[in-house]
Structures are given as structure tokens and as C-alpha cells.
Amino acid sequence: MEFIDEKIEQYALDHSEPESDVLKKLNRETHAKVMQPRMLSGHMQGAFLSMLSKMIQPTAILEIGTYTGYSAICLAKGLVADGKLHTIDVNEELDKMVRSFIKEAELESKVECHIGDAMKIIPTLNMQFDIVFIDADKKNYSNYYDLIFDKVKTGGYIIADNVLWSGKVVDLEKNKDADTLLIDAFNKKVHTDNRVEHLLLPLRDGLMIARKK
Description:
The structure is a single chain. The chain has helices spanning 6-14, 21-33, 42-56, 70-76, 95-104, 118-121, 141-149, 178-191; strands spanning 60-64, 84-89, 111-115, 129-134, 152-161, 196-201, 207-212. By secondary structure, it is of the alpha/beta class. The chain has one domain: Vaccinia Virus protein VP39 (Rossmann fold). It has a seven-stranded mixed sheet, sandwiched between helices. It is globular, with a radius of gyration of 16 Å. The relative contact order is 0.13.
């Protein structure tokens, strides 16, 4: 999943904004206590999401796929004073951990956690979003994109994680598993959507960034 030379990435991190104490602790606990810790956004991607959010200064963010809350905390840092981030995850078992770190990050008033099926919860959110971050089950990436598109403000951003899928998308002859094919189909869907400007950024496992025209 990591495509940058390890020494280059470490140099970049050494000369970037340091990971906060809360995020360091969350990173450690995720790796120690939670299955599939590679799903964590991590320092480099988290810092990028935080910087992007601060540049946009959103009033409303939607995150599809909370996991342990690392990316939610990073994105919420850019919210305006009365802004709100809504994050959705199907895994009820991690909810207590997520909420405890959101509280420790002093973001309780800015982050609202939803537990359940995102396809059912999203239609109940009657608002427009400046940023939507998709980082959930890959089979539904295209469905999430369609479902949230009209809820994104003009000039707003849709960001999808893991769109390089550990590099598998570059060789579909060799990698014909369902998830790889679905991620490739999603990338092609965004690439051919004339309603957005888009950039596939090869950061970590790939971020598709689409700006709604």
C-alpha cells in the first residue's frame, strides 16, 4: 500500500507538522487493539486531510467510514466555529473508542457519530456538505458517490480513499477480484463525470479528489 520510498516518506514527515498527542495515542491504540490497523489514515494522509479542510474552511463535512476516528479528527480541525462533521460507520463495537478520542481531541461539539448502514442514514441528513470523505466498503463506492452527489455544494469536494487499492488497479489482467474491479470502475466513473474536476493523488493508497463544478 505504501508506494513512496520509506526514507523519503520519513524525511517528508520529519519536515511536516508533527502528529498531535491525541492522534499519536489513537494511532498506537488502533495498532494494538483493533483488527486491520492498516485501515487507519495515519500521519501523512491525516495531515493532508487536515490541511485541505483548513484551506476549504467547511461548515459541514460528511465522512462515510469512521473506523477509529483518526480521519474524522483530522478533517474536523478545519471546520468553522459552528461547523459540524457527520461520520457514519456500521461497526458499533468501535463507537466507544471513537467517542473517547473525539472527546480527548475536544471536538465533541463538532462531530456527530452515526452507527448503521450509510445507504440508509445519508438520505436522512438534510443538509449540503462542503466535503464528503468516502472510506468505507469498496463495493458501494459508486453507490455512495451517486447518493451524496446532490448533497455536495457547488464548489464542494468528494474525496475517496484507497483508489489505488495497493496498486492492483494498474494490472486488471492479473487482479480480477471483485474489489479491484469495483475500485477501477469507480475511478473510471469519476474520470468520465463532466460534473466534476478531479485528481487521483498517489498519496498512501490513493485519494480521488473531485470538485463539483
